[in-house]
Structures are given as structure tokens and as C-alpha cells.
Amino acid sequence: MTAARPGKNLKAELALFKRRRIRDEASHLFFRFGYEGTTIDAIADQLQVTKPFIYSYYKNKGEILYDIAEVGISVSLEALNKSLLSSGSHWDRLKLVVDQVARLIIENQEHIVVYLREEKNLEQGAARRVREKRSLFDHRLAELLTNGHAEGEFDVEDPVLTATTIGGMMSWVALWYQPGGSWSEAEIITHVIRSVARLVLPRAMPMSKNAAGKRPATP
Length: 219
Known about the structure:
Elements: H1 6-33, H2 40-47, H3 51-55, H4 61-84, H5 90-107, H6 109-118, H7 124-150, H8 159-176, H9 185-200
Helix pairs in contact: 1-2, 1-4, 1-6, 4-5, 4-6, 4-7, 5-7, 5-8, 5-9, 7-8, 8-9
């Protein structure tokens, strides 16, 4: 088996870097001025490149929007999958999911906000692919809720609807979180975990004041 030539790897890495730079700059502009209020010319001007340079990596503005949306759901799905493989109770894993995904949502705030605001502008095929990944996220989270309910850890009537609610709760943070604002990242994540606990834990197992990091003991 022939090893990949270093030159080819470098070329691929450079191409990915350039696409990422275009995507990130476009995300800044979409975030500030909206998708419809941003042109390819504006993206090129910000990067100090030509329009043909942009078109050599993206066929149109819609493809850039799809790339931004895909990043947001992909990093969340990856964090979910890793958290589900962790040890501990179902509640331990659910807390880890919320913690890790919420952190990524805050870290990728602009991408998430752009996706939530501009989903309507995605091309039909691109929108379908993003929805499929989002649905996969909800259903894998629902499996965790279903298993936890079966073992008495959770009290959940509709696992898919509850999973969708939890996902929406986390995504919504991106729309109102402000770096340096009234609430720190840690405070927001703790609040979301406590809100999820009230949503899924049996009423006989209330959250204690410091229960964001611990599973409540059975009375």
C-alpha cells in the first residue's frame, strides 16, 4: 500500500484552511448583516481576495451558508456521541451531554445563530441534510431518555419530544448569551442542567442546590 505523499496532504490542508477562513468570515458578516444583506463581494473584501478566489472553494453563497449550518450540528452530534459512551448512570451521561453540547454552542455561537436565523435560506437539499443530522441528534438523545425511563431514573412520557425540547433549550442559549454579560458560561450551563433535571427526573427526586454536578439521591 502506497503512503500518501506529504505534498498532497499539505495541499488538502491548505484547501481546508482556506475554506474555513471563507466560512468564518462569511459567518461574521451573516451574523452582523444577515444572509441577504451580505454579498460575495463583501466576503471577498473582508478577506482581501477576489470573487473568483471565493468561487474556487464555494460555488455560491448558499453553499457557504450550508457549511456554516453543518458545522453547528456536526460538532453537537459528535459531542453527543462521545458523551453517550461515557460511564455512569443515565443521568450522568445526560448531564455530560448538556454540559458538552452547551459549551460547544456557546463556543460556536455565531455559527449557531446564523443557522437558526437563516435556515429558511438553505437550498432544499442542504436543508434536508441538516434536518436529518438534527433528527439523528434528537433520536439518539431520545434513546438515552428511553433507557433511563425504563430503569426508573427518568420520568419521561414522550422521549422524542423531550429530547427535541432539550436540544431546543440548548440551541436557544446561542441567541441570548453575551460574553461578559450578566451570566457566565458556567452559570448558564448549570441553569440549563437544572432545567433539564426538572424536565426528566421523577418528582420524588428533586434537585438539591448543588445537584448540577451530582445525581440526586433516592429518598
